């Protein structure tokens, strides 16, 4: 199963926010705006971190994290049967009181008809009443009608007539699954990688770490299938049992080494005045643990050392290699599980991989490779949740996975912006995705304080240069080459959905000598841009014809226009006219 939505209330910097989740979720935003607080809220719900009074927002005395899960498998449907909706989803809240504890509560679909409500069963179990109800055909034909029998009839009737029954969806007052504390891992396994993590911590043979988990699975598999391993275990167990005075059944062990008996008798003689005897007993260890003792991991990149002596980049890469290996092992284990059996209540087989700034210590190419591998990992039962400052982890093709986190003020708290609807038609989507190969850095727009949309390479080159020339340039403004005037509405549409401020800079294209039909096309394109602009987030700056004409370039060459324009403005004789100067200032205002 996977997280479908999360609602967070009064958790750290978050007053109230609801986020729709994808298989891969990527949280971005400026520092100290609340990205990590969203991750910690997920970790709190899944039982990975505890609760501190400082986790409560401001002066609030209560908080909760509420998650809806979907994509439940058959095992999950049995475990969470009571809370399952017709859409095969469940919703659970973890709530806490300041200076108090926390508790889980599930949501239930409660029929509005009294005789279908579980809490009203006792009112309808008398046969003379029950036989007047529509579910009577599902009850035993004779004998006393038990609560269990009536509940079974309710379930059968609801299943057969679900579409016609009206329900209320309410949070139960009693504890989730009837337990005061929900068992850790009931919603699935969690693998959290914080921004600062030593690879040596994940390579420990014992404890809670990925390598220990992987190694334990290998040892367990060997103990079940490898004959040499099974024989070695038998010999070790036999050797240890020979050391004790008595066998497991209490009879005297005739094969015990004489040296141990002499040792005990010697001690007995020395303690004779104390009326005390000594019996040296060897407790057989968990034999599988023997094969962990002395195990260590060495890394050879030309020099064989332990991982702590390697660079941070290699350490980080090794951790992700362990994660991907674990995911493959878990997938193989799930596929090897025999089918056809009725599952019993047990923890979910889902896995949540939560990463804080996975780009740390990785060069750009390695970041892009890691992103692709994480997307691939987010299939089947796996879900990826991360926060990042790198555009390498963003893909406009997966814009629904992106969530921009902002905190405009302490009073408002952390808020989230995402787009979960389809933005483009199939043709628009194809054109938009093709533009990636022309402009691969366009994902940077999600990190910008303001986005400058321009038509082409000349604008992208000259506008920032002139802004620097006028001392108004800003690094937190990102210039995006849209590739053409016709592509601009798609970018505008995207920025509107994520509430990102922007300026659209385009040419009117009324050059001398242009035919009326061409001018009409240019005007239609301009109109499309203006219609797409949402004045709450953006506005336009228009060059009368094009930037070359604004610069006073009379050379009509269409080749190497960015280079020719940059050469022109670098000439000592170049003078920036007042009209273009005001436009550049307005762009960077």
Which features does this protein show?
extended, Rossmann fold, alpha/beta, 18 strands, single chain, 6-stranded mixed sheet, 589 residues
Low-confidence stretches: none
CATH hierarchy, class of the largest domain: Alpha Beta
The fraction of residues assigned to DSSP E strands is: 15-25%
Major sheet: size, sense and barrel closure?
A: 6 strands, antiparallel
Q: What structural category do the secondary elements indicate? A: alpha/beta
Overall body shape: extended
- Counting structural domains, the number is 4
Strand order of the largest sheet: 2-1-4-5-6-7
Under CATH, the topology of the largest domain can be stated as Rossmann fold
How many strand units?
Answer: 18
* CATH hierarchy: architecture of the largest domain: 3-Layer(aba) Sandwich
| Helix run count | 18
Report the end-to-end length measured between terminal Cα atoms. Answer: 48 Å
């Amino acid at each position: 199963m996977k997280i479908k939505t999360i609602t967070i209330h009064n958790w750290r910097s978050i007053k109230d926010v609801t986020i729709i989740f994808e298989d891969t979720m990527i949280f971005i935003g400026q520092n100290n705006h609340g990205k990590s607080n969203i991750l910690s809220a997920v970790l709190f719900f899944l039982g990975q971190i505890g609760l501190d009074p400082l986790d409560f927002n401001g002066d609030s005395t209560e908080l909760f994290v509420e998650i809806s899960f979907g994509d439940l498998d058959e095992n999950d449907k049995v475990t969470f049967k009571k809370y399952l909706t017709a859409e095969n989803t469940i919703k659970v809240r973890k709530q806490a009181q300041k200076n108090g504890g926390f508790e889980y509560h599930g949501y239930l679909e409660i029929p509005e008809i009294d005789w279908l409500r579980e809490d009203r069963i006792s009112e309808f179990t008398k046969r003379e009443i029950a036989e007047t109800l529509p579910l009577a055909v599902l009850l035993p034909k004779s004998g006393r009608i038990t609560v269990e029998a009536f509940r079974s009839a309710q379930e059968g009737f609801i299943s057969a007539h679900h579409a016609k029954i009206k329900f209320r969806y309410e949070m139960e007052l009693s504890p989730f699954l009837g337990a005061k504390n929900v068992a850790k891992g009931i919603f699935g396994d969690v693998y959290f990688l914080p921004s600062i993590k030593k690879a040596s911590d994940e390579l420990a043979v014992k404890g809670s770490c990925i390598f220990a988990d992987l190694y334990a699975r290998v040892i367990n598999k060997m103990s079940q299938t490898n004959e040499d391993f099974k024989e070695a275990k038998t010999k070790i167990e036999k050797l240890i049992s020979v050391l004790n005075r008595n066998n497991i059944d209490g009879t005297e062990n005739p094969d015990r080494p004489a040296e141990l008996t002499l040792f005990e008798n010697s001690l007995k003689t020395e303690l004779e005045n104390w009326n005390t005897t000594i019996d040296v007993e060897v407790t057989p260890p968990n034999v599988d643990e023997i094969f962990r003792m002395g195990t260590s991991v060495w890394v050879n990149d030309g020099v064989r050392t332990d991982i702590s002596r390697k660079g941070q980049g290699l350490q980080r890469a090794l951790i992700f290699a362990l994660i991907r290996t674990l995911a493959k092992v878990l997938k193989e284990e799930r596929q090897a599980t025999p089918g056809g059996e009725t599952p019993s209540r047990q923890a979910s087989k889902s896995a949540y991989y939560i990463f804080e700034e996975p780009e740390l210590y990785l060069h750009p190419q390695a970041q892009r490779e890691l992103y692709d591998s994480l997307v691939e990992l987010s299939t089947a039962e796996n879900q990826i949740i991360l926060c990042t400052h790198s555009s390498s982890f963003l893909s406009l093709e997966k814009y629904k996975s992106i969530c921009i986190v902002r905190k405009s003020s302490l009073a408002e708290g952390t808020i989230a912006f995402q787009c979960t609807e389809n933005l483009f038609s199939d043709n628009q989507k194809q054109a938009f995705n093709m533009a990636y190969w022309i402009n691969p850095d366009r994902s940077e727009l999600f990190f910008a304080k303001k986005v400058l949309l321009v038509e082409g390479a000349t604008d992208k080159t000259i506008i920032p240069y002139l802004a620097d020339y006028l001392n108004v340039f800003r690094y937190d403004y990102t210039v995006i080459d849209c590739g053409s005037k016709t592509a601009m509405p798609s970018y505008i549409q995207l920025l509107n959905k994520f509430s990102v401020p922007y300026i659209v800079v385009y040419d009117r294209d009324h050059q001398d000598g242009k035919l009326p039909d061409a001018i009409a096309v240019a005007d239609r394109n301009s109109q499309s841009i203006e219609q797409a602009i949402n004045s709450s987030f953006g506005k336009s700056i228009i060059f009368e014809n094009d930037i070359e004409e604004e610069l006073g370039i009379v050379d009509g060459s269409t080749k190497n226009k960015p280079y020719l324009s940059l050469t022109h403005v670098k000439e000592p004789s170049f003078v920036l006219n007042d009209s273009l100067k005001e436009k550049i200032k307005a762009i960077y205002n």
